Amino acid sequence: MDRDDLRVLLTAPDLELMGGVAETVRLLLRELDGHSHACYRPFGRRKGQRGFLRYAMPFLDLFNFAVLLCRKRFDVIHMNPSLNARSVFKELLLFTVFCLFGYSGRILVFLHGWEQDLFDRIAARTVTVSLLRMVMKRAGTVLVLAGSFRDSLVRVGVDADKVHIVTTMVDMSELPPVPSSAKECRTLLYLSRIIREKGVYEIMDAFTSLSTRHEGLTLIMAGDGPERARLEEIATSRGLKNVIFSGFIRGREKYEVLEKSCIFLLPTRYGEGCPVALLEAMGSGLVPIVADAGGIMDVVIPGETALLLDEISGESIELAVERILSDESKRKQISGNAASYAEKHLSSAQVTRFITNCYFKMCVESAINN
């Protein structure tokens, strides 16, 4: 069997929805085009759906998948669930449908989201942890976004040989060029959902102090979320006219924001996987200032491609930003290292190649076992 002849069925949330999962699957489909016969089908609610249909859609999709599998055969199934309470139940139903149609051992499960509290509850009960091990046994490959996620699965008895760490991916061709050494560092960027767990209040405290010492320094808060309105009130009350709340951005607008920025802030406590915004910032030559959370430590090298915060506090963020603003040679070094690392390890072409190898390996092992 040739890799270019693989017939792959990808399931994922509606690609019109916002988020890292949709972005990753869009890039994967583009990279697979012309190399494998990839067929994408959405699973779950669609953009703009409201009311009853939103909740009924997963069940309608289950029926549609059954019809599709009766008509067509695939070599590999690629699922993109998240480990959260909303996703687990419906994705388990879809996984069962695939197994009933004979795809055990040829299902790649790419776990994007990860709620550690939910995993701990699953691991604490004999029935649920046994169900987890059974599902993972029937999967051919399990991809996770952090070494800590892999360790958690292996610790409860999942076969270590099946679980691999992979990053999300970024299209390097859609990023601005790495800035020249002459670029002045005047803009800080936060690019993510605006929630308390991601250190947004600490960023505001740090910037309040920094702006008194660095005239013309700007902070862009790109994204939406429940804390945005309160942060706008704080910026106004403190007289911070150089804080820009741009809302959710994509495409050309995101390109322009990355191009004008020099430092990327993500002091998150949130156990996310591998944030796409972090990869985009690294690929654009920004200096990341990040916390040790989720899969962040799997894609940065502290001191070389990013600065790692000792704690998530306004003072810690302020000291890290000050270090970069006051040391141009350090900024250039980290900027270049981050861009080079992203090009070699985080591009959509590199990650897709790894995933395609997983597809092929599953097919070979399935053929040997059968």
The strand count comes to 12
**Which whole number gives the mean pLDDT?**
91
Major sheet strand order: 2-1-3-4-5-6
Structural class: alpha/beta
Largest sheet: 6 strands, parallel
Spell out the helices and strands N to C: EHEHEHEHHEHEEHEHEHEHEEHHH
Q: Helicity range of the residues?
A: 40-55%
Kindly report how far apart the N and C termini lie.
15 Å
Please describe what this structure looks like.
The protein has 370 residues and is an alpha/beta fold. It contains 13 helices and 12 strands. The protein has a 6-stranded parallel β-sheet with strand order 2-1-3-4-5-6, sandwiched between helices. Helix 7 (200-213) links the parallel strand 7 and strand 8.
Question: Could you list some keywords that capture this structure?
Answer:
370 residues; alpha/beta; six-stranded parallel β-sheet; 12 strands; 14% strand
Describe the structure in brief:
By secondary structure, the protein is of the alpha/beta class. The protein has helices at 20-32, 51-71, 85-100, 116-123, 126-138, 147-155, 200-213, 228-237, 252-260, 276-283, 314-326, 328-345, 348-369, and strands at residues 7-12, 37-42, 76-79, 107-110, 141-144, 163-165, 187-191, 218-222, 243-247, 263-266, 287-290, 307-308.
List the helices and strands and how they pair.
Elements: E1 7-12, H1 20-32, E2 37-42, H2 51-71, E3 76-79, H3 85-100, E4 107-110, H4 116-123, H5 126-138, E5 141-144, H6 147-155, E6 163-165, E7 187-191, H7 200-213, E8 218-222, H8 228-237, E9 243-247, H9 252-260, E10 263-266, H10 276-283, E11 287-290, E12 307-308, H11 314-326, H12 328-345, H13 348-369
Parallel strand pairs: 1-2, 1-3, 3-4, 4-5, 5-6, 7-8, 7-10, 8-9, 10-11, 11-12
